[in-house]
């Protein structure tokens, strides 16, 4: 299965993707994790991305597409994958569409985790205390939410217009949200 997870920062994409990867037995591709690995390795790409991420802005589309093409060319995605964190703007959505068409692996599901903004802020503040991620400070969080509204929210409409979108209530315990996503992925059997 090829699954796209959409949602604002703090909506639980990364959290659910880790559970879904075990359930579906497919790799989890998080562009945030790929970028953080480059930053940790101190690669030229990581050095370029580090400040941009800390400010809560988007890293360049060209870098992201190159990284994604590279990751999707690996053998372990032959049986499917969970993509989390990409696309984050309409240009990335169009690039992903073209890439998946070219490699003959169209997306099966696009799932949005819907969470009110006050709860997003609360969750990220919790993670800031637990993990101390560089972009979880209040100023970057404000910027990330603004970038989400301006650039990523239109991506949700892109998948809605393509008839691929399922919206899931992302409020509740992690197990409850997981159960909702899994049930949305079940094939619908016509009655009668
Ligand atoms: P990401 O790593 O994607 O970070 P994120 O949007 O904050 O989501 P994440 O998946 O980590 O958090 P989650 O909601 O699971 O991106 C970071 C940065 O990388 C971006 O700002 C950008 O600079 C760059 N980047 C990444 N992709 C890019 C792209 N395509 N183009 C350009 N730049 C890109 O969880 C948040 C917290 O909520 C956790 O602490 C979790 O424990 C908690 N939580 C989750 N579910 C919960 C629940 N049900 N109840 C209570 N708490 C919950």
Describe this entry's structure for a reader.
With 192 residues, the chain is an alpha/beta fold. It has helices spanning 13-24, 31-41, 44-55, 61-72, 90-102, 117-131, 138-161, 174-185, and strands at 2-6, 28-30, 81-84, 109-114, 165-169. Helix 1 (13-24) crosses helix 8, helix 2 packs across helix 3 (44-55) and helix 4 (61-72) runs parallel beside helix 5. It is globular and about 55 Å long. Bound molecules: BIS(adenosine)-5'-tetraphosphate. Residues 9-15, 30-32, 35, 52-53, 56-59, 64, 85-86, 88, 92, 123-124, 126-127, 135, 144, 172-174, 177 line the site of BIS(adenosine)-5'-tetraphosphate.
Rounded to the nearest angstrom, the distance between the terminal CA atoms is 27 Å
Number of strands: 5
Which spans have pLDDT < 50 for at least 5 consecutive residues? none
Numbering strands along the chain, what is their spatial order in the largest sheet? 2-3-1-4-5
**Which H/E pattern describes the elements?**
EHEHHHEHEHHEH
State the shape.
globular
How many helix segments? 8
- Main pleated-sheet profile: 5 strands, parallel
Descriptive terms for the model:
globular; 192 residues; alpha/beta; binds BIS(adenosine)-5'-tetraphosphate; single chain
SSE inventory with pairings:
Blueprint: E1 2-6, H1 13-24, E2 28-30, H2 31-41, H3 44-55, H4 61-72, E3 81-84, H5 90-102, E4 109-114, H6 117-131, H7 138-161, E5 165-169, H8 174-185
Parallel strand pairs: 1-3, 1-4, 2-3, 4-5
Helix pairs in contact: 1-8, 2-3, 4-5
This protein binds BIS(adenosine)-5'-tetraphosphate (B4P).
BIS(adenosine)-5'-tetraphosphate binds next to helix 1, helix 2, helix 3, helix 6 and helix 8.
């Amino acid at each position: 299965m090829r699954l796209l997870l959409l949602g604002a920062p703090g909506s639980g994409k990364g959290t659910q993707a880790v559970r879904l990867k075990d359930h579906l037995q497919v790799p989890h591709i998080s562009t945030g994790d790929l970028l953080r690995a480059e930053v940790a390795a101190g690669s030229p790409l990581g050095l370029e991305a580090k400040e941009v991420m800390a400010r809560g802005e988007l890293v360049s589309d060209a870098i992201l597409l190159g990284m994604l093409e590279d990751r999707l060319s690996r053998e372990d995605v032959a049986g499917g994958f969970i993509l989390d964190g990409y696309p984050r703007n309409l240009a990335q959505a169009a690039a992903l569409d073209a890439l998946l068409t070219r490699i003959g692996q169209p997306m099966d599901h696009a799932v949005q985790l819907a969470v009110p903004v006050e709860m997003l802020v609360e969750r990220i503040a919790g993670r800031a205390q637990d993990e101390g991620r560089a972009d979880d400070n209040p100023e970057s969080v404000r910027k990330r939410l603004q970038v989400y509204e301006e650039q990523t929210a239109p991506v949700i409409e892109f998948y809605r217009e393509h008839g691929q979108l399922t919206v899931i209530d992302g409020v509740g315990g992690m197990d409850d949200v997981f159960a909702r996503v899994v049930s949305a992925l079940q094939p619908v059997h016509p009655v009668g």
